[in-house]
Write a structure and sequence with these properties.
The complex is a heterodimer of chains A (762) and B (309).
Chain A lengths: L3 H13 L15 H11 L3 H9 L8 H10 L3 H14 L4 H13 L3 H14 L4 H13 L4 H11 L5 H17 L3 H16 L6 H15 L5 H10 L5 H12 L3 H14 L4 H13 L3 H14 L4 H13 L3 E5 L11 E5 L4 H22 L8 E6 L2 H9 L8 E3 L3 E5 L11 H17 L6 H14 L10 H9 L9 H5 L6 H20 L1 H12 L4 H9 L3 H38 L3 H14 L9 H11 L3 H13 L5 H13 L3 H11 L7 H13 L3 H13 L5 H15 L2 H14 L4 H15 L1
Parallel strand pairs in A: 2-3, 3-5
Antiparallel strand pairs in A: 1-2, 4-5
Helix pairs in contact in A: 2-3, 4-5, 5-6, 6-7, 6-8, 7-8, 8-9, 8-10, 9-10, 10-11, 10-12, 11-12, 12-13, 12-14, 14-15, 15-16, 16-17, 17-18, 19-21, 19-35, 21-22, 22-25, 23-25, 23-28, 25-26, 26-27, 28-29, 28-30, 29-30, 30-31, 31-32, 32-33, 33-34, 34-35, 35-36, 36-37, 36-38, 37-38
Chain B lengths: L2 H19 L4 E7 L5 H19 L7 E4 L6 H14 L5 E7 L2 E3 L4 E3 L6 E2 H9 L5 E6 L6 H5 L5 E5 L12 H8 L12 E3 H19 L8 E4 L5 H4 L1 E4 L10 H22 L6 H25 L6
Parallel strand pairs in B: 1-2, 1-3, 3-7, 7-8
Antiparallel strand pairs in B: 4-5, 5-6, 8-10, 9-11
The chains are: A mainly alpha (762), B alpha/beta (309).
């Protein structure tokens, strides 16, 4: 007997419901009446399905069936209540718990879903639907054992066919993400074979969709498989959405957009497809279309946390300040660069971001012999979570930058705590991606795009030094590099902690190795060969005349020669570094110097924030040997180090020693780390002005003003003085009067006014 | 309007304003509370010493009372209020600076001193007794922000180290405030004097920067509340960077100083009229005032034995 609230709820559902998108049950549903409705729905007869589900909303059917019907009609909140009652009425029915869990999974509440699956397994330890569903949740959270569980289910002839089919599809999906095309093909063959043992042709929908995904991953046409799926269900959006996903992860954003659009064209309530389409529009700088699809998706699926984040981001995105370079495109139809910056950061970041980005564009255009066909758009986010939502849809990841073709998004220096973040290097890295993606027509594997970006960081970027993090070297003490043909796997499906960053470094070193052994031209050849749509094995053969096995062997030898000693001596190096640090803490300067030098001799290129160079410099400072200290800091800086306070000290010293050009260079390099440091701008501006570089000094002082200094009178005076030296006397007068308005007794400003007025008189 | 008439108008306005802009005596009280731990005691000792030294350079000795930790008792504070209540006139101002620890229980603020603590009720009651035009209270203690609400409506300019009574951690603001009084970097209008406003702004910025640089969550947010609207904080000098002004000037120098002060008053008057002026008019009059000021300052420097820059 239904209670009154539930009856009332169902009546409401009857009036307002519409059939909504859900995942197929794969045999978890057994009620024949319900199955009839499911058959209609999964054949694309949505109108008939709706009538059918509504006919189930009465006491002739169990609460579990009614819950399914309510869910299918789109009211997930009410379905939850009905499932709850169903579970109370039949507390030993594990199948109800499994389906109830699926409802929670459908509303992105994984933990609640997992709890229900666990309860189901407590009632029926061999319930394979519960096992599979639980394993899928654990898989999504990175639990490695989940894969084994799913493999067991796929291989188990005693479990329902639907479970085997679904398990196999999941495994095929994993294989495709890891670029294991052959394995995926074998799995999909198995899934198709299992399906043929069943009369339910709906089982084939997921198989065909995943085959379409495989075709995309293998750079083939997916249409044959899409067509087969649509013959079973013409309203099956995943027929397009699944290949769209694989276009997306292989950076083919034009095709991604096309296929997600087709997905929503055949199934307009495929809310995830709307969301993904919106995200793709945003990747391609089409915020209006993005907003349209985000809003559609949110209206249909308000449970999706990614949607809420994305809509909030869009509201914020529309407030950004956009600056185009050049501002007045006379010779060009389009600007070369478009910077999108938070209004609070615009006046500080724009001079340096534009300068560096334009330099990167010029550098890569020459090196890769490719002119950009569209405006390069660079977005810089002062809040890391906003950047991550922009990049991935949900906050909470450690990315610093991302490139979607012509659009680059990255963290501002203010988005990262501490002094480690070199935003200039991130910008350089991401702009390099624009070139590798566009020059290869997006037919480039992840590893090669990352490899070229890292390689360019090392060779042409602001730091201009090869930097391999310690934890990468540490990992390489026990782990091995991936074969070049499988290197994408290290990025997409890492098997150990640090494998992603190890893969980045391996990719960069591969490019470095190619440059050394074969010449930079061969690197460009590889890029152009990828553009033809061939795989890595073929690229290596065509561009380098090697098999991938030969390449791997030569690369391994190169790495051993260049870095083998460092990997081997890592523990000894670490020990020397620790001894140096301990000696420093005790102010045992000579001991600290000795151990620090030992560490430097073993690894002269290590210039991170805990570098032995800094220990050595501090020990030299302790001994009051300023010139030795500064020589050490200079070596540290020229090797690519950028510790803020140490380099400010170096710049001050160089200035005092009248080594003005070097002081300027050091300070300018620091702008790519801490552009929000007021004192840096003042010091740099003062030295530039002293060196008769008034235009550049003016920029520094204007940026200083944008940083809201307390002493505005002094800042306006500096601006006025720089303007005076550029010859802009009228603006200089105006700024001088502003300074005096703040501080009428300010003698330097008073004297400048005298000079200005004398100038005019003359 | 011609420039000449404009300038004349400014001068006339200045004379009208002059009586309103004159501040007579300032009666100052500096109270040091209990430190509790030795480290805090040393901090408060240093702050009181720095603030006290600065005040001695700008406030008449007869009107300056410094109660160090041993002397700071409730009855001494009340006695000071008694003295000021009877010995002040309406045009006088009062400045109270409290350095120490404070607490707030949700209803009452207490400043920790020997014997009974000084409560917000005590402070309100005693401020009410003073019939002076300007009342300024600076409190650098934890929970000092509670006074913003507890003393609202008292026509008192309040400067606190915290934004409310719930910011209970010991503050760093007091240290930065005390040091600002000797820092040329705090002299934002470059007049060789540090006003209360300048010291507050400098300390507030230094406090905020401290938390940023240390990567800490800020547990204090200094506040300035001026319900009187008289901008007392900007007009009250707390430190003289040029050293105590000599009382012995030649008649010529005295004349030039008076001229300089007159120009300063005209500048202030011009600022008050800015809203009704175009930018061009304002800039023209302002520039002419600056040229006069420069000329007078050049002559002052020559007479004081220096070279004109």
């Amino acid at each position: 007997m239904l209670n009154k609230p539930i009856l009332g709820l169902l009546v409401t559902v009857l009036f307002f419901a519409d059939v909504q998108a859900r995942e197929y049950h794969y045999g978890a549903i057994e009620d024949t009446n319900l199955l009839q409705c499911e058959k209609l729905y999964w054949s694309g007869e949505t109108s008939g399905a709706e009538t059918c589900y509504k006919s189930l909303l009465n006491s002739n059917h169990s609460l579990a069936v009614q819950a399914e019907a309510v869910w299918a009609l789109g009211d997930r909140q009410s379905a939850n209540s009905v499932f709850q009652n169903a579970a109370k009425v039949e507390p030993s029915n594990a199948a109800i718990l499994v389906r109830w869990g699926a409802l929670y999974a459908d509303t992105y509440q994984s933990q609640e879903a997992l709890n229900l699956y666990t309860e189901a397994l407590a009632l029926e330890p061999e319930n394979s639907y519960a096992k599979l569903a639980a394993a899928e949740i654990l898989l999504a959270s990175g639990e490695k054992q989940a894969v084994e569980q799913i493999e067991q289910l796929a291989d188990d002839g005693s479990v329902p066919i639907g479970v085997r089919v679904k398990a196999t599809i999941v495994l095929a999906n994993i294989a495709l993400k890891r670029d294991e095309i052959e394995r995926a093909g074998g799995l999909l063959d198995s899934a198709e074979n299992f399906s043929s043992d069943s009369s339910d042709d709906t089982l084939l929908l997921g198989v065909y969709a995943m085959r379409a995904g495989k075709a995309v991953r293998n750079r083939q046409n997916p249409e044959e498989w899409i067509e087969r799926a649509l013959q079973i269900n013409p309203a099956y959006g995943d027929a397009y959405a699944i290949p769209a996903y694989f276009y997306m992860i292989t950076f083919r954003y034009d095709e991604t957009g096309e296929y997600y659009q087709r997905a929503v064209d055949v199934q307009d309530d495929h809310w995830e497809a709307h969301l993904s389409l919106a995200a793709n529009h945003l990747r391609q700088n089409r915020s209006t279309l993005a907003r349209e699809h985000y809003e559609l998706a949110y209206a249909g699926d308000p449970f999706n946390p990614e949607l809420v984040n994305s809509l909030r981001l869009l509201d914020y995105y529309d407030t950004f300040s956009v600056i185009n370079y050049p501002e007045n495109a006379e010779e060009r139809l389009l600007p070369q660069l478009s910077l999108r910056l938070d209004t609070e950061e615009r006046d500080v970041l724009s001079p340096y971001a534009s300068r560096l980005a334009l330099k990167a564009i010029e550098t890569f255009s020459q090196r890769y012999e490719f002119d950009l066909k569209q405006t390069a758009a660079v977005e810089i986010y002062p809040n890391h979570d906003d950047f991550i939502v922009r990049a991935l849809g949900m906050p909470g990841t450690a990315l610093l930058g991302v490139a979607f073709g012509y659009v680059v998004a990255m963290d501002s220096p203010n988005a990262q705590a501490g002094e480690d973040y070199h935003w200039g290097t991130t910008l350089w890295h991401e702009v390099a991606h624009i070139f590798t993606l566009e020059a290869s027509k997006h037919n480039i594997p992840r590893w090669f795009s990352e490899g070229v970006s890292v390689f360019e960081e090392w060779n042409t970027g602001p730091l201009n030094a090869v930097r391999i993090p310690l934890h990468v070297l540490k990992s390489l003490q026990t782990q091995e590099f991936l074969p070049i043909a499988e290197l994408d796997r290290g990025f997409v499906q890492p098997e150990y902690q640090n494998q992603v960053i190890v893969s980045y470094m391996q990719a960069g070193l591969i490019c470095e190795f190619v440059r050394r052994e074969f010449g930079f031209d061969k690197l460009v050849d590889m890029l152009n060969t990828y553009a033809a749509g061939v795989n890595t094995t073929e690229v290596v053969a065509q561009a380098l005349s090697l098999t991938v096995e030969e390449f791997d062997a030569q690369f391994a030898k190169y790495f051993e020669q260049e870095y083998g000693a460092q990997v081997e001596q890592l523990d000894e190096w670490n020990a020397a570094r620790e001894v140096a640090a301990e000696a420093l803490a005790k102010m045992a300067w000579d001991d600290a110097l000795e151990s620090a030098q030992q560490a430097i001799d073993m690894m002269p290129g290590y210039v991170e924030i805990d570098s032995p160079y800094l220990v050595k410099a501090e020990a030299q400072s302790g001994k009051e040997d300023v010139s030795a200290q500064m020589a050490t800091l200079e070596t540290f800086w020229r090797s690519g180090g950028y510790q803020v306070s140490a380099l400010f000290e170096l710049a001050t010293y160089l200035n005092e020693q009248q080594r003005f050009d070097e002081a300027i260079e050091v300070l300018q390099s620091q702008l790519l780390v801490t552009p929000f440091d007021l004192e840096l701008h003042f010091l740099l501006g003062d030295i530039l002005l002293q060196q008769s570089r008034a235009d550049e000094a003016l920029i520094e002082y204007q940026v200083a003003l944008a940083l809201d200094p307390l002493d505005k009178a002094a800042t306006y005076y500096r601006i006025a003085n720089a303007l005076y030296h550029t010859g802009d006397i009228e603006q200089s007068r105006s700024s001088t009067l502003t300074a005096l308005d703040l501080a009428p007794h300010y003698r330097p400003a008073q004297n400048l006014l005298k000079s200005i007025l004398s100038y005019k008189v003359e | 309007m011609s420039w000449r008439w404009l300038r004349f108008f400014v001068i006339g306005f200045t004379f009208l304003l002059t009586p309103l802009m004159v501040v007579a005596e300032t009666h100052a009280l500096l109270i040091q509370g209990l430190g509790g731990e030795a480290w805090y005691q040393r901090q408060f000792d240093e702050q009181v010493e720095l603030i006290g030294e600065s005040l001695k350079g700008v406030i008449d000795e007869a009107h300056l009372t410094i109660l160090d930790v041993s002397a700071a008792r409730r009855e001494a504070v009340v006695e000071w209020f008694d003295t000021v209540a009877t010995g002040s006139v309406e045009t006088d101002s009062v400045l109270i600076i409290m350095v120490g620890h404070g607490t707030f229980d949700g209803q009452e603020y207490k400043f920790n001193i020997s014997g009974p603590d000084l409560t917000s009720g005590d402070i309100r009651e005693n401020l009410d007794r003073l019939a002076v035009q300007g009342k300024v209270l600076l409190n650098t203690s934890s929970s000092s922000g509670a006074l913003l609400e507890l003393l609202s409506g008292e026509s008192t300019t309040l400067l606190t180290a915290t934004k409310n009574g719930n910011e209970r951690n010991a503050t760093r603001f007091g240290r930065f405030f005390a040091r600002a009084l000797g820092d040329t970097g705090a002299d934002l209008d470059k007049n060789q004097k540090i006003s209360l406003q300048e010291a507050f702004d400098h300390a507030e910025r230094a406090t905020s920067d401290f938390y940023d640089e240390e990567g800490l969550l800020a547990t204090e947010h200094a506040q300035l509340s001026d319900s009187s609207g008289a901008q007392l904080a900007a007009r009250m000098t707390l430190a003289n960077l040029g050293g105590a002004e000599s009382l012995q000037h030649s008649p010529e120098l005295t004349q030039l100083i008076e001229e300089r002060d007159q120009i300063d008053r005209e500048v202030e008057s011009l600022r008050l009229q800015r809203i009704g002026m175009s930018d061009e008019d304002y800039q023209f009059v302002f520039q002419s005032l600056m040229l006069e000021l420069i000329s007078v300052q050049d002559e002052i420097e020559l007479l004081e034995g220096g070279d004109v820059e």
